[in-house]
Design a protein that fits this description.
There is one protein chain. By secondary structure, the chain is mainly alpha-helical. It is built from four helices and two strands; from the N terminus they run ββαααα.
């Protein structure tokens, strides 16, 4: 768990032991990757991608991937900020929005 990073480990779910601890940046990286995989799947097979899978787009940002419990308020708020920032960056990198 201790990778020498000064970023604090967070846990606001029902996991016990070392399983529930993670850095905010690691949780954000995981959620970003899951969302990109989901969108890639949808782009490749829009007619066969189940609606339930698309509804999971936001769930990975709100819910522990181990125990499936929703994160506590402070972690949920921090992950929401990360989601907005990363989504905006994805759009800018892909020229999907115009920047001034």
């Amino acid at each position: 768990l201790d990778d020498g990073s000064e970023e604090p480990l967070r846990r606001e779910c029902a996991c016990r032991g070392a399983a529930g601890w993670a850095h905010l940046s690691c949780l954000s990286d995981y959620a970003t990757t899951k969302n990109r995989d989901l969108l890639k799947s949808f782009e490749q097979n829009p007619l066969t991608t189940e609606l339930g899978n698309l509804l999971n787009f936001g769930v990975v940002w709100c819910q522990c991937f181990n125990c499936k419990q929703y994160h506590g308020e402070s972690l949920n708020l921090d992950l929401s900020r990360e989601f907005v920032e990363r989504t905006g960056n994805d759009y800018r990198e892909n020229d999907l929005i115009r920047t001034q």
